[in-house]
Each structure stands twice: as C-alpha cells, then as structure tokens.
Amino acid sequence: MDSAGAEGPARSGPRYDVFLSYAWEDIDLAVHFQELLEARGLSVFRDVTGMRDYDDIPTVIRAALDGSRTLVALYTPSFPESQYCRWEMYTALTRSYHLSGQTRRVMAVVRGMRFSQVLSSRLKCLRLPAVTAALADVSDSVRRLVDGMDHRTFGDAPEPPVPSWYPEPAVGSRHFRGRLRELWQIRDAFDGDDGAGSDLPPVVFLVGGGGIGKTMLAEQYGRLFAEDHPGGVFVLGGLGSHPDSSRDPLRVAALVGDRIVAIARRLELVGPDAPATAARAALSTRLAATGMPYLWILDDLPAGVDTAVFRTLVAPTALGRTLVTSRAPGPGGQGLHIDVGELGELDSLTLLSSRLSPSPGAERQARRRLAEALGRHPLAMAVAAELVALPETGGFAGLLASFAEPSPDVLETAEQLGVQLPTAHGVSICATLLRGIDRLTPEGLTVMRLASVLAPALFSPDLLTDILGESDREGRDRQEFRESVRRGIAEAERLALARSDGTGSLSVHALVSRTVRLADHDDTARERARRAAVRVLGERLHGPAADAAARFRTFEALPHVRTVAVALAERDDQHLLNEAGRVRSESGDPVTGLELLRLLHDGCVAALGPSDITTLRVLAGLAVAHGMCGDHDAAVRLKHQAYEGLAALLGPHHPDTLTALNNVGVTHLDRGEYRTAWRVFGQVYRARSRKNGALHPDTLSALANASVAVSLEGRHALALRLRTSLLARTARVLGTRHPQYADALNGMGTTAYALGHRAEAADWFDRAYRLRRDLYGEQHGDTLDALENRLVAASADHAGTAGPGLEEECFREVYRWRLDLQGPSHPATVTTLRHCLVACRRGTAADGPAGDEDPTLPTPRMEPVQKLPHGVASGGVRLEADDMDRRIEIFELACSAQELMGDSGEDDEVRALMTQLWLAHATALMDQMDGQRDVALAVAEDTEAGLARELGRDHPLTRTATSLYRWIEELVDAAVERPGEG
To answer: Which CATH code for domain 165-339?
Structure first.
C-alpha cells in the first residue's frame, strides 16, 4: 500500500488500517462492512465480544485503537447513544488532531439518519458518502483515503504542547475525566458562528451547576487544544458566582481588572503601580502585535452582569476566543451556550475507581449504583473516590450503604445548600462532602475552616499562615504555623476538597466552602478565624506597597475583602473596607473604591445609626471618594453633613471635626471657589494652631492648604509669605527628606513662577523633583508633577539653553509616562497634553513662539488630611462638563499645532505623527459633540499604523499610540451601548 509521508515510530502490538466503530445493535451491518473493507486489502479491527453496560474499556480495545491508522464510524441512530462509540470516536478525533492538526483520519458512514444529526461537526469536514450509497462504493472511498495517509497510528500522537498560561500556570486535576464530547463541542463552536450574531470576538458559555466541573473543563480545553491558541491561555478566575454577586456587576469588572493587571505585570508590560485601564491597554497592544490567536477564560461569571459590563470583560482583541464558565446563560443572548451536566457513565465509573479498583461482581455493581446515587456529580465523585480507598469506609458498598439513612445534619445541610445541588441527588452529594470533611485531621479541618471564611479565589499558604498565626492563642512561632498549614493543605488535597495551582496557591470550590461553613459548629473558632482574616487583610492593604512581595500581598487580599468584612459594626471590618476602598482608588479605580466605601457607610448606618461617630467618619471618607470621582456636588453636600454631625457630637475643635471641615475646603477649591476655600482653611489653621501649636504636623497641613487657596486666587505675595514660613517649619518638624517637605518645595516653585521669577522657580522644582524621585521613584504621579513643573519653568524662559525640539521631546516623554501610569482622562495627563501642544507649536513656528500662548503650571497637588491616594488628583479622574472650556482650548491648540506642522513642510514623520496623535486625544476629550469620538478613533488608528511603520510595533511611542487608540475605542463602544449619555 502506498504511503503519503514518512512512517511513524515502530510500535509493539497489533497494527490496523481501520478501526471500525459501531453500535452492537448494528453488528450484522458492521460484519458485512468489515468484509468489504478487508476485500480491498485493508486490515480492520472490529470488536467481536461486545461490551455490556458499565463495563470498563478493555485493554484490547485501547491497544487496537492505538495501533490503528484511521477510524471509520458506522454512524446509525444507535451510534451516538453508545458511550463506548462516543469514547472511540472522540478519542480518535483528538489523536488525529494531535498527529497533524486535522481530523481526516476519522470518517463517518451515515445510515438511517440525516447528515445534520451527525456530531461532532468535525466528521462532516470531509464530504460524506450519501446515506444511500452502496457499502461497496463506500469501501472504495475509504481505501483511497487510507492510501493517502502516512503509516502513523493513533498511538503515535504526541502529547499536546504545554500552553502559555497567564497570569499563572493551571496544572489541572488528577480527578478530571472524560468530557471529550464537550471539548469538541467547544472547538466546533469556536470554529463556527457564535450563535447570536454578536459583533464580539467568539464567545462560548459553559453553563452548569456548582461542582459540575466547568472550570476544569475550560482548563482542559486550553490544554488539549493548545495549538489552536499559540498566543496563550489567559485565565481570569475567582469572579465568584455566589448569590450576592448578581447584585454587584461592578465588583466583577473590578476583579477582572485585577487579573488583567496581574497578567500585564507578568508580561512586564506595565509598572507596579499602573491602573487597570493602563494594564488593559498595554495588554491589548501586546495581543494585537503578536498576531496570534489566544484563549480568554472568564471563570465563574455571576448572573446579573448586563451586556454593557460583559462587553468590557471579553477578550480585548479580535484574535481572542472567550470561554466563559457560569451557572447562568450569558447576558442578552451573548455567545453560544453548552450545557455541562452530569459526567458520562463510563467516565463516572473511571473516576470512582481512580484510587480503588472494584473486584468483579458485587463491588462493580456497587460502584455503578454509587455513581447513580451521586448523580454522576464530578466533585462528589472525586471525594467519593478518595473515601472508598480508606479502609474504614468499607469500599463502594460501604459508602453507598451510608446513604440509606442520612443523619439529621446531612439532611439539614442539604436543605440549606438548596439549589446548589441537583434536586434528586442532593442528600447523597451532601453526605459525601460531609464525610470527606469528617475524615480531615485537625490540621486539615483548620485549613478548611480558614479557607471557608475567604472568597472562592486563589490564596497562598502564606496568607493562611498569617491568618492562623493571628487567630492562634498558643503563642507558637511562624515556622510551626507554616508546617501546620502545609500538612493541612496536603490533607485537604488528598481528599479532593482543595486544588492547588502551578504556583503553590490553593483554591477551594465554593460548594465545598459553603458545606464547611454549614458543617462547622464551632462558632467561636469560626468567628476567631474571620476576625483574624479581617486583621491580616487589613494589614496587607494598609500603607504603600513598596516592593513586589508587598504588591502581591495587596493583590491577593483584594478579592477576599467583601467576604470577610461582614460585621460592619466592628472597627477592624470598617478599617478593612476603608483600606480596600483606598487601594482601589490608588490603583486607578476610584469608582470601585467609591462602591466599597458606600457599602461600608450603608452597613454602618444599618448597624450603628446615621449619627454614630463611626458612621460620620465613614461618611467623611465617602464624601472624599465622591470628589475623587469628580462628583463635586455630592462631595460638598456629604462633607457638610459629616462636618455638622461631627461638630454636634464632638465639638467644633475636635481633630475629626476639623478634618471634616478641611475636606469641605478641598471641594470648594475643586469647584474654583478660592475665596471660600481660603476662609475655610484659615478657620482650620487657627483652630489647630491654638490647640496643637504652630509646629504640629496637622497645623502645617492646614497652612499648606491655605497657601494653595490664596495662590489660586492670585494673591501671590501672601502666598509667598505663607509658603516661606511653611518651608522653614516643615524642615524643622519633619526634616528635609519628608514627602511634605517636597510638597513645600513644589509650592515655593509655584509662587516664584507666578511672580515671574522663572529661573528661581525652575530651581525649586528641580529640588522637589529630585527629592520625590528618591522617595517615590521615577515613574510616580508626584514625581512627574515636579518634573513637569521644572520643564514648564525652564521652557517659559525663552532665553534658556534648551531648544524647542528638546523641550518638546521632554514633554513627550512625560506624556508617555502619564498615559501608562494615570490614563488618558486623568487631569494631570490632560495638562501634560496641553504642554506638549504648546511646545510643539513653539518648535514648529518659524518666528519663535506660536502666538501668545504661554503654558501655565499644573495646580500643585493638595491632599486633605483624609489622605487621597498618591498620584490621584483631588479633583477626580474624569473630566466633567465644567472642564469644557479647558477641553476646547486644548482642542484648538491641537488643531493649530497640526496646521503649523503641515505648513512648515518639515519632514520629521515621527514628530508629525505625534502631533496627529495629540489631535486624536484632544478630539476624544471633546466627547459632547456629535461624531468627534469616531473621528478621534480614525485619527488614532491612522497614527498607530504610521508609528508602527516608522518605528516598529514594540517602540514605546507606538505602544503609547496603541494605548490611546484602545481607550478611544472603549469610549466609542460605551457610547454605542449607552447612546443617551454624554
């Protein structure tokens, strides 16, 4: 027989040209077909023994399939009903795919049914013989196809390549079995239409109940078909489909943002402090630049996420395929749905006997009945497989017998789990999980208790060690705690109650966690563990994340905050939510920070009442958060409420009252009401000075705020006197290496600049920049503020040594850093855009400065004592309607710079493209005029292509252009989803 291609490696055992797969009901037809194939010189394997229901796949069948070059399926109405036929067909499809990336080695001969009823659709990739074709003619066709195959067999198929997992490897589970049918359904769905006419990249939903194996199925798809997505597998998990999530879609978006940040950091696309928007833009750029398909897994998506939010969660570029696991269908009919139900009979029996093989006869029958009693529920069967291997269980029959008379606690727990369990099998499943929990050692039970107070997201052994150490009252050292946690994790994994990932982190299924909570009757120990978790998470979120290890601890803590902080009347819980809100805002997500603080305030009102001291303090923080989001009307209203409540409760001169009053002044400053802000800050300064003295840090903060107000009002001589005094006092009290001293230096520069002393201002700003660089690093918002101030002061002196070209290049670099660090809509980034445009005009105009434009300095950072996060302006992170005059000015500057560039005849293509990019940014900021975002998107797309052509895809300026393009694209998409909004 001729062969196309080289032969595979020599194999022991029988070799066949054809493995004939058929249902036992069609044996007569199969025998005839075999005779026809053999008459044409083909060696054929056909099972002649048959298999009874629930038999294992015999070794001879597996060996024959491994030794066969092709599989021919005699596809009759009985064929898809046979689990053995399905196993043979899908195994052959998978092996064929791994041999050559195709499925041509698997052929279907259809009889007694329509082609449209044939599954998998892979069988229809070849033109199938007509259902009425004579078997003799079909045999000729099979012979021709076999002749075209090389001599490799299914057993020669290599293992699939290991996919590139992000943000960390997924190592699967030893308890995963089967699901080949569903795996090929997913692949067929991705290769076809998504079933909804959606303009999204391909989306497939795996829908099923808790513990049914959706997550492991999604991971297995990524593993089995790694060659389909060479760009990698991106797993965004821990979204939590518990009931509370359905009312909180913003929480889901925030968690997805966290995972995207982790992925972008793993790929070294962004710095440690980059917000989620910058991380998403950088990742989108990378994915588009690679040009390779990739898999995007959204694991455990809750119900209740609307279409607008869902569109922000799917794969960010057209090359991505989004695979979603959820307990509910997708929003708005998005994507194609695949129901993930009970495990197949054959795979169920294989899973149940993975640790103990049943002896023939009664034990095999007991195994079959045990699978039926558990509803072939994968999680319950995985636990059962471990239990039957324990001597005290009594094997399959012993575990099955224990279901006969369930104890009251089993019945009660099953009732409380309710809809999370299959109705007909809930008691047996619950009994199995409870029995697994009962078999834990004390250390294993402790680990599961700690895990159950956390959210169903990944957590490290170090986190459990910290919580255990915080809750333990025996005074053991950390090494003892670490070893205890290690042994407890091993115990939980051994009983299939927990699963580790490739980095050593652990996850516990939500169904197992809830069962542990219901079964744990030691309320004192549980509450002690919860409070310990609250304190540990609060400590992890408190203060700046100075290094990579601290940033990991912060990132790990965030998903668990809402789960553990449930006693909002307690100070530690309040502190945790407050810190989580601060960290969210600090990382560029002030909206989620606001939501956390609103949750905290609502909880305090319900638990303590609106006039309680804690409630009022939280109200003050909530008001600050509104200001950070740009809602100054709500901010000033809530700040006045907090101030008046605290004044009535604590008196007008209490530190908390004065802090609340100070925050009122901040919002007046944000609203441009400088004289009012000056009066408020002056009142705070006088009260603090009388109470604490002129050298107290709180007094100095009030003086700094007052100096900002008078400076913005234009009274620069007074501002100079105040700031000179402030600088001297700060150096005396806090020293010359303190952040507030850097702020004082910056303030001196602002005043010197306003008074026309440009060289002196540049010197002050240079000192502030150097100190902030030492304190915060090069790419930090405050450092960039001082650097930009120095550039403005230097460029304002037209007799300076720096030429216009160098000036523009310096501003361009700050702009690039701002875009990555703070995002395109941040007020500081918009200010930098203006400075870039002014510098561009200066460098382009032939007769010196273009027009009479003279850049003004950014307003120096002013932080209330309430402590806004570093790098976030007190005015918020989005432009409001009251900034429209500023937007118009920047838009006109951009148009003017573009015109000058065109008139100059300059042949610097990169400089021309950057000017065009700034025009796109300025146009996108004009988002209240018809069609301007679409224009901006087109200009940004053209600019990105031009920079990629001139500099390459990986050049920093090209990546900046791509980041801006993605942002504008999101604005356009949001406008389509919400056409009524500005």
So the answer is: 3.40.50.300
